[in-house]
């Protein structure tokens, strides 16, 4: 159940925790949870299910080990702050720069995103989950996922387009 | 979701890009793109970003060592699942076999990490996860029959989650006239909300728990530093009025009763006698409210 999606699982954990060792710990922990939950029945969409567990494990882990880097509860304020930042940004990003961004720039830009934004971009563009699956994984309505994704992409465009 | 018409064009663009629009939506967006160069430029930019990320952002592969560890875990899990009550057994097996593996190759910065593996924390975290999963309405994930105990499990998980996160309510107010309409706006049917402040159980607020695919209105009351979460559902057929029954689950006190065709389930970390007192007070107040309502 977990093994076919191990690369996806590890990739997500790696993006959320930011380093290899922690990602391995999170994936292993998530697998233990997944195995324990498997007793509960058949899983309809295994990949989304595995990623949901990895995501939740990663956030539990982050809240415990890096409480300062995650903001989960101050969601509203945090989104407002992010929106304020957007409006200050230059309105003319270079399309060329975005299309030609290399791995290092892309990784750095994604890593610079706050966790709540980063996870939706990674789940969507790297793991290829649908909005619905992401919404289930992060425990937010689809509309929230969409607006976080839009904000995240706006920040990425800003950053990559004005290098 | 609401039916308010014109959504943010950025969200529409993005949905088109992500293949999340239906055919009608695509036709509409294509027409808008053709008519609006600025929108088309934004679309192109989002497309370039998406292409860059899918083509070149890191997609780390799981290291072989991790793969090997997980493989051995799943094999153990498979065996245990054949037996009855597999969940408990194979978790234990998995734990016992992964711990040595972990400590072998690594040394220094592990001291506080090992606490993370402690069993009590683990069960707490698992409950938390269950709470999150259910709370997110991730109902299709576990295709289990929805019996009474599932509802109970969901409610207890919701309670644990509320205590852990420190956010036990979605609407925080001691005013029952605020909680009731808030719940009414989200859930069909009226929820009984009574003021028990003078009985020593001030109202903290309300939230919605989800059991299976069913949203349940839940009220949260306070007693000293403890909380009581009270969920209401429709009563099973033929059980319109039944006296309170006390149970325990995962160390929490549960009190359930039916009253006037509705079933109530209260979960708390309070000692049982206090929870009984809560049940008495709530039933009395609910009965008083029922008598009052028709006169208005």
UniProtKB/TrEMBL annotation, chain A:
NCBIfam families in the cross-refs: sigma70-ECF
Lineage: Bacteria, Pseudomonadati, Pseudomonadota, Alphaproteobacteria, Hyphomicrobiales
InterPro entries membership: RNA_pol_sigma-70-like, RNA_pol_sigma-70_dom, RNA_pol_sigma70_r2, RNA_pol_sigma70_r4_t2, RNA_pol_sigma_r2, RNA_pol_sigma_r3/r4-like, WH-like_DNA-bd_sf
PANTHER family in alphabetical order: RNA POLYMERASE ECF-TYPE SIGMA FACTO, RNA POLYMERASE SIGMA FACTOR RFAY-RELATED
UniProt record similarity statement: Belongs to the sigma-70 factor family. ECF subfamily.
Any one Gene Ontology molecular-function term assigned to this protein's record: sigma factor activity
Cross-referenced Pfam families: Sigma70_r2 (PF04542), Sigma70_r4_2 (PF08281)
Key words, A-Z: Sigma factor, Transcription, Transcription regulation
Protein name: RNA polymerase sigma-70 factor, ECF subfamily
Residues in RNA polymerase sigma factor 70 region 4 type domain copies: 105-156
Ranges where the RNA polymerase sigma-70 region domain occurs: 2-66
Entry annotated with the keyword Transcription regulation: yes
UniProtKB/TrEMBL annotation, chain B:
Keywords: Membrane, Transmembrane
Composition bias type Polar residues, residue spans: 90-100, 230-243
Record organism: Methylocapsa palsarum
Superkingdom to which the source organism belongs: Bacteria
Region annotated Disordered, chain positions: 75-114, 230-252
UniProt name for this protein: Transmembrane transcriptional regulator (Anti-sigma factor RsiW)
